Every structure is written in structure tokens, then in C-alpha cells.
């Protein structure tokens, strides 16, 4: 316990850093994922191509490489931001590709007749998607969206290698101070477990309230 009690502030700072990364990157991933899922089912061909390219590139790019591309590439175009914000962009964009596919799979579970009925009532594509299709699709994708965001929380550990304050990075300081590396990692694992179990609990509540009964 001395590893935790004597370095509680250090663990706390890293824990809060990981929570912030997870929350902000999750928000960005959900917004971009929804946007790209809309593009992928849009009647406009150029939008479908854009959505397909976005998903294909990001899903097949290692997250570490994406971090390098964002942190080292964007400043070359004059975009200089705090490292934490760069990490949020990298994590959010990467996860958005997976959120997009989860949402698209949910959209595909909605009977085609639902959209046709909405269009027969005079609704345009945006109205049909937002008021008819997505509310039904949302109920079936709650568990996989939760799993994707749990993966995002664990992927945030990569940010520590790019000078971003997060939970896994605390082991470097603890190792330099001579603390047991085993217990350092055990308490780090406990921190990640708290975060992932919290996300899981939130989505379990959502699934019980709005999920499709199976």
C-alpha cells in the first residue's frame, strides 16, 4: 500500500489525466462517428466515398502511427496546440472509425420500409435519419458502442509516450524513485479497471433502459 499512499497525488494526477482524455476523445469520436455513419448511408455518392475513405484509412492505421502523424504533422501546417489536445484528436479520430461502423451496422438493422415510409411523408434524408432511423438503430448498438469506448480508455495509455499526463506514465516517475515496478503497475491497473468498469456500468444502465430486448 505504501506505493499508493506515498504517491497518491501522482496517481491522482495521472488518473484524472486519463479520465479527461477518455471523456474528451469519446465526445469527439461519437460526433465524428455519427457524422461519418451518416455519410456512409447518404444518397450523395461523394459523401459515401468520404465516409468509406475515412473508415478504411483510420481502421487500418496503427494508433501509434496516427499519434506521430498528428503530433508531428499538424504543427508543420501551423497548427500548434497543447499535447493533450493533439492526443484527444488522435484518439477521437481513430475511435470514430469504429463508432461509425457500429452505428452503420445498427442503421442496417432498421427495416428499409421505415425509411421509405418517412420519405413518403415528405421527410428529407436528414429528417429521416435523425427522427426515424437513428433512434431505432441506437437501441441495438448500445453494447458495442460501450465496448468501443472502453477500448478508447485503454488506448489512451499511448498518449503517455508523447508527454501527455495520463495514468500509465506514472510508472516512469515511480521507477526513478525506486518503488517496486510490480506494485506500481498493479495500482495503475486498478486505476484503469475503475475507469473501464464505470463506462461498462453506464452502458449497462443505458442498455437496460433503452436497449432492444433479446
TrEMBL record:
Q: Which keywords does UniProt give here?
A: Amino-acid transport, Cell membrane, Membrane, Transmembrane, Transmembrane helix, Transport
Q: Which PROSITE patterns match?
A: ABC_TM1
Give the residue spans that cross the bilayer. 21-41, 53-72, 79-99, 181-206
Q: Which domain of life is it from?
A: Bacteria
Q: Where in the cell is it found?
A: Cell membrane
User: InterPro entries, per this entry?
Assistant: AA_ABC_transptr_permease_3TM (IPR010065), ArtM/GltK/GlnP/TcyL/YhdX-like (IPR043429), MetI-like (IPR000515), MetI-like_sf (IPR035906)
Bilayer topology: Multi-pass membrane protein
The main location is membrane
Ranges for domain ABC transmembrane type-1: 15-203
- NCBIfam families according to UniProt: HEQRo_perm_3TM
Similarity section? Belongs to the binding-protein-dependent transport system permease family. HisMQ subfamily.
Which protein are we looking at?
Amino acid ABC transporter permease
Q: Which organism is it from?
A: Streptomyces rubiginosohelvolus
